[in-house]
Amino acid sequence: MCNGDIDMMYTKEIVKDKFWILENAGIKIGTIRFCSTDEFELNVRQSDLSDAILNEHMSLSELTSHFGEKILESKESSVDVEENKVGPRGGWNTSMTEIDGYASKHIVFNAETIELKGKQIPTYTKTETSKVRYVAGYYGVRFPSDWRWFYGGKLDTLNTCEFIGPYKTKSEMQSETLLANKRDGL
Q: What is the distance of C-alpha 26 from the center of its chain?
């Protein structure tokens, strides 16, 4: 199932006792998600460069017999988050936490709501020391050709572009962005 040296594999705990990133010598190769009392979901990228994902449910004993007894002992400390909606694919379906009910794409540090163009925008940084701010929630952003969906992006983008939002759901963002394109004849 997994190629490479098992001794080089370790996890990074993302949500305490619920979600781990599986790495092999520093390269992300998959995820492990706790499902129930003795069941875990393992999603591992295949090594044949086909971008295929192996999805398998296994017990704790199967998991530890394959990867070793300490596989769920995280190499890095965990972060408690308010809500975890992490899907196996990431991207638009990923929410690490929420700020005032708005989903964020990353683990949140230094959360702060700021006013921008007359709207209250929930923002955060990806690390405690970072100065780069990201926005929580879903947005429609006006680019030269049309309105586009925007999620988990930098605050600077909203500073420089016209935008609609924030929205609490992906579907609300999609419908409002579609209406904006129709309204503007795009």
A: 19
For position 81, what pLDDT does the model report? 37
- Judged by DSSP in three states, 73 sits in coil
Cis peptide before 144 (omega within 30 of 0): no
pLDDT in tens, 142-168: 999 999 999 989 999 999 999 999 999
* Residue stretches of the chain with pLDDT short of 50: 1-7, 76-93
Phi, psi torsion values for 140, nearest 5 degrees: -110, 130
pLDDT at residue 1 in the model: 39
171 and 110 share one domain: yes
Q: Give the C-alpha separation, 21 to 11, whole Å.
A: 5
The answer on 26 and 96 residing in a single domain is no
Percent of the residues in the chain that have a pLDDT greater than 70, as a whole number: 78
My answer on whether 100 and 175 are in the same domain is yes
Residue with token string 């925007």: 150
* Nearest residue to 149 via CA among 178, 129, 122, 183: 178
Residue type, 113: T
User: How many angstroms separate the CA atoms of 67 and 128, rounded?
Assistant: 32
Backbone φ, ψ for residue 8 (5° rounding)? -90, -5
